[in-house]
Amino acid sequence: MNNLFKALNDPTRRQILDLLRGGDMNAGEIAEGFNMTKPSISHHLDLLRQSGLVEATKQGQFINYTLNTTVLDELLAWLMSFQKTDVPSPETSNSPKAS
After folding, report:
1. β-sheet with 62-67: strand ranges across
2. How far, in Å, CA of 60 to CA of 54, rounded?
3. Exposure string (b/e) for 43-63, b if CB count within 10 Å is 16 or more?
4. In whole angstroms, how far apart are CA 71 and each of 3, 33, 56, 84?
5. Does the pLDDT at position 93 exceed 80?
6. What pTM was computed for the model?
7. What is the spatial distance between Cα 67 and Cα 52, in angstroms, rounded to a whole number?
8. Cβ neighbours of residue 31 under 8 Å, at least 6 residues apart?
9. Percent of the chain with pLDDT over 90
10. What mean pLDDT value characterizes the chain?
11. Residues 6+ away with beta carbon under 8 Å from 27
12. What is the pLDDT of residues 40-73, one digit of tens each?
């Protein structure tokens, strides 16, 4: 899970994830959307792949990247497990008690 938080911590990687929401892309297509070197983009893509947020598939001389939402679903489920479920609703906590 540490790799996941590390991957999500960087704004460039979050922008890459936003791009991939539109569909699969190769590294060159992703790099076109940024003002940085292709090796830097490759580094970000590798961290996203290591975290499980993207999947990489080699097709010929290109590597296509796909968003893997399963990891985000698992993260959301883990975060939601911290939500309190025994908090009374405002309607019941403000109502007068019967004597």
Report:
1. 25-26, 62-67, 54-59
2. 19
3. ebbebbbebbbbeeeeeeeee
4. 11, 24, 15, 23
5. no
6. 0.78
7. 9
8. 38, 41
9. 68
10. 88
11. 38, 41, 42, 45, 62, 63, 65
12. 999 999 999 999 999 999 999 999 999 998 988 9
Tell me how crowded residue 77 is: count the other CB atoms within 10 A of its CB.
9
SS3 of residue 55 by DSSP: strand
- Round to whole Å and give the CA distance between 59 and 82: 41
Q: Residue 46: helix, strand or coil by DSSP? A: helix
Read off φ and ψ for residue 58, nearest 5 degrees: -80, 125
Give residue 49's identity as a one-letter amino acid code.
Answer: R
Q: Which helix (H) or strand (E) holds 58?
A: strand 54-59
Instruction: Return all residues near 89 (Cβ < 8 A) that are at least 6 apart.
Output: none
42: enclosing H helix or E strand: helix 38-51
- In the structure encoding, which two tokens stand for residue 43, read together? 């580094």
